[in-house]
Amino acid sequence: MLMESPFRYSLSIANQQPCYRGGPATLICKAVVEETHDARTFVFEDRQSRTFDFKPGQYVTFKFEIGGKLYPRAYSICSTPTRPHNIQITVKRVPGGIVSNWLNDEMRPGMEVEIADIGGHFNYIDLPSRKPVFLAGGSGVTPVMSMLQYINDIVDPTDVVFVYFSRTPKDIIFRDQLEFIAKRFKNVKIHLVVDDTGEEPGFPGARGHVGAALMRSLVPDLHEREIFMCGPEGFMKAAREMAREISVTALHEESFGEKISIDDTGDLGGEVYFALSGKHGKCAPGETLLEAALNVGIWIESSCQQGVCGSCKIRMTQGAVDMADLGGLSDEEKTEGYVLACCSRPRGAISIEA
Fold this sequence. Notes:
Structural class: alpha/beta
Shape: globular
Radius of gyration: 22 Å
Distance between the termini: 67 Å
Strand order of the largest sheet: 6-5-8-2-3-7
Helix content: 10-25%
């Protein structure tokens, strides 16, 4: 008599579970994994025991409450939708980072967090590629890890190259997993690159910074490939210059990170009038319009927190702001009075449509 496969039975049970497909939800931390000396992976399950339906490379917008204040943050999912019972994020400490350091110091199994949604166009489903090269710096490895695991789980034969830049070998997040993938899957080539070999003089990878000469040596057919890249802004700027010099076929990018204080914002601040809700608030020196809104109970949709995605755009009807826009607004939107709440700091009293 043929026996039913336990694996098939488990898949059947999973398919019968309700599935989270977007919107606000409460997650429970199930595990915390130390990846490096300053980065941890946090494993979350849905409080309603739903599975997760997302695309490899997408991000989660969290709403963290710390010290009585609400901090929205977007973190890329590093796990894969082929393993739908949890979602995982990996967070690296950032000097002055309120949320990143709180997560690394305080988050424990059993604690609950709120999320607003899962989204993002930077993913392997919406941007299919015949010959992708994934390019990451530091914690920018997280969406790439989701894509690599997905490619491996579905046994996708696509010719993939991943070039990952870290400061030293001890800063390489997911090093064991990446080396395992490179050994097991012949269609995936992984290059680990460091600035300094540090305490590992025999490091087998390359040394250097992202640039045309190094990338050509690692990926000779780079000009035939599409680049998918993620990392801190300094890394992204250098990668864009490299891509222009080599004239790659296409360039796709994601840029998330912890928002930190900037020394020259101390004189920025003022009264904020929220015209649609009729509320008044105060933007303390260095605070953004998004923070001022949250402090008076007004929720403005936001994702990247860096002036990249444009989801927090809002019209300013009076006053002036300093805005660290990284491409989230078009010239036409700026002319119409829109600003990005996540990276705008008022110069005196202003009025916005919120």
